[in-house]
Amino acid sequence: MSGLPPQLPPPPNPALLPVLAAVVYLAAVAALWGFLSLLLDREVVDYPDAGPLLGPGMAVAAGVVTWIALVATRRRRSSWAGAVAAVPLSAAGMLVVAALGYAPVAVPHFALSPFVLGAAALSGITVLVVRGIRAR
Questions:
Q1: SS (H, E, C) 75-102
Q2: pTM for the complete prediction?
């Protein structure tokens, strides 16, 4: 037997959970968009001249909004307000990127897209699930 005392793990960093949840959200958006693209036989970005970075840019904008919602609801008792706010704000973030990255006339097309609506709903679900994990 060695005379060393047992080592305790370091305390958890409270800023780490929103970052990890936002990264998992981005992976879930990529998976959701892939499944929807296969099921609907439709491209995520229908415009061939939009370029390869418009879709990832929209996803990153939604990921940043989700991260902000997670940080904002970190110390609140209920995360429902943050989850409800994350849904339209993440959709708005994606539409802003679509307007700046491609054209403002494409925003109505993207606003009704199941890809944007699915990613926005997933943002609200992420905020609620992280709150459920943290409550334990």
A1: CCCCCHHHHHHHHHHHHHHHHHHHHHHC
A2: 0.88
